[in-house]
Here is the input.
Amino acid sequence: MLISIIGLGLIGGSFAKATTARTNHTVAGYNRTKSVLEEALRCGAIHKIVDSKTLNESDLVILGLYPELSAKYVKEHAAEFGKNTVVIDTSGTKTKICAELQGVAEEYGFTFIGCHPMAGKEKGGFKNADESLYCGASFIMATTEQNEKTAMVEQYAKDLGFSMIKRTTPAEHDSMIAFTSQLPHVLACAYILDKDAPNHKGFSAGSYHDVSRVARINAPLWDELFIENKDFLIPHIDSLIENLQLLRGAIEASDHQKLTELLTIAGETKKRID
Amino acid sequence: MLISIIGLGLIGGSFAKATTARTNHTVAGYNRTKSVLEEALRCGAIHKIVDSKTLNESDLVILGLYPELSAKYVKEHAAEFGKNTVVIDTSGTKTKICAELQGVAEEYGFTFIGCHPMAGKEKGGFKNADESLYCGASFIMATTEQNEKTAMVEQYAKDLGFSMIKRTTPAEHDSMIAFTSQLPHVLACAYILDKDAPNHKGFSAGSYHDVSRVARINAPLWDELFIENKDFLIPHIDSLIENLQLLRGAIEASDHQKLTELLTIAGETKKRID
Here is the structure.
């Protein structure tokens, strides 16, 4: 296949490196910052640079851009994709982009499938991109359709090392992602804003590091994701605050029975669901 | 030295395994469950079983028990410790136990130093104890005194692989530990009590796993720690809720400027302090 990857940051760069390392597909790349594009060519992560002809001939176009830029790119290049081209995005919310780009795809005759690779790192950019980033991760496809094109994307994801293909709807995706990904980022940031955080050294161990890891946040990206998905995210923040209040109440009242009960439910839930 | 270790769970068991693996000291052990004591002897983690004579001759006695049981053990055995014996505990709060046991130590003529090894695992018991558990961790001593006895404990901790000795007061310890260790456990439990937690598979990745890791909690132990330390813990829970409300407010108002500002402060703080 001919695969075009637009945006060679952590996500797009890892798709490029994984595709050249693990498949025989031809990879074309595009990146706004030219030095990154040259580095990607030099290190063999991509075989060539994307142009209009490449877009037209591509079997698969992967958007490794911020959500707003992904939609903009597809709209600007809609007439260049071929009739057999499948365009997938990789952004963290799906309701808005799927509604918008499925309309564009129908109009111009290509296929759009909203996707979300469940992997990342707290350090971005092509230099942190990794051909094994997706090994063992889940690949979410926000469509319940089953056809030749979805089968092709599934097979490609498996070839890159993804261990699970999760099929869902855009709305279910956004609701679940608000809990599994956005809420951990919100609470890591809330945690690290504590006035004692700067004095943690010597007093901290694994639990501090794990809970605060993703506070090393890409602020403009997550600002966009949180606000776009606020209808799903806010109920989860409220649920978290409510559960914190429950625990706080039992602690303040020195209610050992209630506190042990809440902790036991949490501990048993965690063991059961993982 | 002759070192007695009372309680061979994850913490005491790791002290035993690390001491026999990394030093030439003689290790005596005690554990309520006899099968664990036999296993510790069999695998060479301890050289012999603690008796009254051993306690009297010990240079160092390490309490690997729950906080309440540590205090109880020292009071019951106060007359058996030698004049040169240093008794240390390993429990997660220091104000109460230090006040209580320093009094007992003065009365009976041994030395008590409140300590806290900053390492753990979400799975307890001797079978999970590990001779390398303390490698690279911080060893906190809740005393600011400097003498022959504190120097001996410091050297011993370094020999076991601890990379940092943190000297502090019991009150500062309890205030900082409320933030670095107890609050992460509270928030991991509050997070996992979300109604969508059981459906996370296929939607979850690193941030879900890191934030919720310590929800696999030892409920009776942390119930005791949270309530004992509530005067320090509750203000940190309140600060966390306040910061969550701040982030929630910016998200609900779609206030990109305010939200980016808060996330940027969190992200830059995290990078600066680690």
Q: What stands out?
A: Chain B touches chain A through 92 residues (CB under 8 Å). DSSP finds eleven helices and nine strands in chain B. Chain B has a mean pLDDT of 96.
